Amino acid sequence: MNRPTKEQLSKKEFESLSEFRFQIRRFERFSENIIAEFDITPLQYLLMLHIKGYPDREYASVGELAERLQSSPHGVVALISRCEALGLVQRKKSAMDRRQVNVHLLKKGEAILTKLAALHRTELRSLQNIFPVSSINS
């Protein structure tokens, strides 16, 4: 793979990359702090977000969640178990393929997710001056 060397990047490009990474980290820090107020972990929040945000349906399979979380299915199963113990999600066998397990949000998980997502949306909107993104205006 032919990767660009530092000589190929201008000072302005380094500044842009630095600012981008700073804003990502700033958002992550905000997220970590606000999520902790709800007595869940950032990964538990992300799991619920990916269930609710899975395209065209209100559940996701373990494999789909592993892909979205960029984690191993084994690790995601453990995360799902912790979320189940907290009453946030529930596993159900797929009606179409009994070997597949789908994960659904429970009312408690939905309530926490809704509050946290609204707070995250507000924070994302504050970043629009730096990185305009039309999808966060909704």
Give a topology summary.
Blueprint: H1 11-36, H2 42-52, E1 59-61, H3 62-69, H4 73-85, E2 89-93, E3 101-105, H5 107-126
Antiparallel strand pairs: 1-3, 2-3
Task: Tag the structure with descriptive keywords.
57% helix; mainly alpha; Arc Repressor Mutant, subunit A; 9% strand; 5 helices
Notes on the structure:
- Strands 1-3-2 form a three-stranded antiparallel beta sheet.
- Strand 2 and strand 3 (101-105) form a beta hairpin.
- It has a single domain, classed as Winged helix-like DNA-binding domain superfamily/Winged helix DNA-binding domain (Arc Repressor Mutant, subunit A, Orthogonal Bundle).
- It starts with 10 loop residues before the first helix and ends in a 12-residue tail after the last helix.
- It has five helices and three strands, in the order H-H-E-H-H-E-E-H.
- Helix content is 57%, strand content 9%.
- The chain has 138 residues and is mainly alpha-helical.
- The radius of gyration is 18 Å and the shape is globular.
- It has helices at 11-36, 42-52, 62-69, 73-85, 107-126, and strands at 59-61, 89-93, 101-105.
- Helix 2 (42-52) packs across helix 5 (107-126) and helix 3 crosses helix 4.
**Largest sheet composition:** 3 strands, antiparallel
Number of helices: 5
Q: How many strand segments?
A: 3
Q: What is the N-to-C order of secondary-structure elements (H for helix, E for strand)? A: HHEHHEEH
The CATH homology group name: Winged helix-like DNA-binding domain superfamily/Winged helix DNA-binding domain
Q: How many separate structural domains?
A: 1
CATH structural fold name: Arc Repressor Mutant, subunit A
Describe the global form. globular
Helical residue percent band: 55-70%
* Physical arrangement of strands within the biggest beta sheet: 1-3-2
Name given to the CATH architecture: Orthogonal Bundle
Radius of gyration: 18 Å
